[in-house]
Amino acid sequence: MFLREKSRTKDRKTHRYWSVVENRRVSGRRVVQRQVLYLGELNDNQRAGWVRTIEALWGAKPKAPYWAVKPSG
Q1: Confidence of residue 44 (pLDDT cuts 50, 70, 90)
Q2: To 10 degrees, the CA torsion angle through 35, 40, 41, 43?
Q3: Measured on CA atoms in the order 10, 48, 24, 40, is the torsion positive or negative?
Q4: How far is CA 68 from the centre of its chain?
Q5: Which residues pair with 24 in a beta bridge?
Q6: 12-42 pLDDT, tens per residue?
Q7: Domain boundaries, the chain
Q8: pLDDT confidence of residue 61
Q9: C-alpha dihedral over 46, 47, 49, 52, to 10 degrees?
Q10: Could you give the C-alpha distances from 3 to 11, 27, 28, 29, in angstroms and in order?
Q11: Which terminus of the chain faces fewer neighbouring Cβ atoms within 10 Å, N or C?
Q12: What pTM, to 2 d.p., does this model score?
């Protein structure tokens, strides 16, 4: 599982929306990604909390680019 960012520009402002996503293997070798939980807009502290939660539950280290997102300015 990992966090996925979706960006959208609205009224000349960029909004970042986050979801928890998992990889599922279907039909032998094909892998699809399934959205498990929609989190909406998160600030940097909330996002870091979700990263720690996912690491604690699944024990996996994060992989770029989903985790290596620069904090918003």
Answers
A1: confident
A2: -70
A3: negative
A4: 10
A5: 32
A6: 999 999 998 888 888 888 999 999 999 999 9
A7: 2-58
A8: 59
A9: 180
A10: 25, 24, 25, 23
A11: C
A12: 0.66
